Amino acid sequence: MAWSVGGVVAALLTAGAARLDWPVAAGLNAQAGIVLLLALCMRSHALPSFAPEPSGARTQPPLGRRLWIRLIPFGLVLLVVYVVESTVSAWSAVYLRQTLAASLTVAPLAYAAYQAGTVVGRAATDRLVHKCGAVAVVRAAALVVACALAGMAAAPSWPFAVLAAGAVGLGASVLAPLSLASAARLRPAASEAVLARLNLFNYVGVVIGGAVSGLLGSTGQFRLAYAAPAALALLLPAAARYFTQPPRGTQPMAARRACSDRRSAPS
Question: Is residue 62 exposed (0-12), middle (13-18) or buried (19+ Cβ within 10 Å)?
Fold first, then answer.
């Protein structure tokens, strides 16, 4: 969640710098100064010690090829999420500027709205899952993402695109952590290895999203760049039935760490 808050702040700072007519170099220098200040404020601390594993402990069984098949529903959801993440993060400002004729001050606001939506979505995910169940939440979130992306593609002006970007973040932020948590429960004793396999879908999604949307944008088809992932998102409700919800307090520790807050993208 801290990553998303940082994204909102950075987008607003960029919009403010454009409003003040700061040159790009001045904005980059200001950001570098913030990073330097954070580095100077860091302090070292001792890491917790862990007891060594007994020499006679049973070795972890191999995961096997069949696990890849069981990971496909979660991997496809994660892939689409990161296609969306990469498209909005990398190209939303250019879309507002070139297609919707937004000013340099307004162009970063779509990304700010997207990240603000992820903050709200991640803060509400646990409560929604406990109240409605994971399957219903995944279906609803997928439909929100599809409709919001379609809204971005058809936006008549930049305010509509900004609102739609916020709705995209609201839905997409729910799908990623639920995919990770459900996949980790396939093999609770080897959840770290399972999540390592699932992460391959992240990178594929980032590459596809950034490359395809950039290619379409270079030909002036940014609206199509948002309509295409909207169509993909309509396929996600079919995978919702594979999502499970454990009893309270039984979620594997690795899944808790993975779902606490991941970057909406691993880049």
Answer: exposed
Per the structure block, which two tokens stand in for 160?
């509509």
Helix (H) or strand (E) holding 198: helix 191-218
pLDDT range class, residue 160, cuts 50, 70, 90: very high
How confident is residue 254, by pLDDT bands cut at 50, 70 and 90?
A: very low
Buried b (16+ CB within 10 A) or exposed e, 177-195: bbbbbbbbbbbeebbbbbb
Of 183, 187, 179, 180, the closest CA to residue 63 belongs to: 187
Which class for 12: exposed (0-12), middle (13-18), buried (19 or more C-beta within 10 A)? middle
Distances, alpha carbon 240 to alpha carbons 116, 118, 148, in Å: 25, 20, 19
Are the C-beta atoms of residues 49 and 135 closer than 8 Å to each other? no
User: How far is Cα 100 from Cα 184, in angstroms, rounded to an integer?
Assistant: 42
Chain centroid to Cα 95, Å, comes to 19
Assign 3-class secondary structure to 95-139.
HHHHCCCCCCCCCCHHHHHHHHHHHHHHHHHHHHHHHHCHHHHHH
pLDDT (tens digit, 9 = 90+) per residue, 124-139? 888 998 999 989 999 9
- Amino acid, single-letter form, for residue 260: S
pTM of the model: 0.77
Quote the tokens at residue 202: 């992240």
Q: How far is CA 177 from CA 126, 135, 184, in A?
A: 10, 13, 11
List all residues 6 or more positions away from 214 whose beta carbon is below 8 Å from its beta carbon: 90, 91
CA–CA gap between residue 125 and residue 173 (Å, rounded): 9
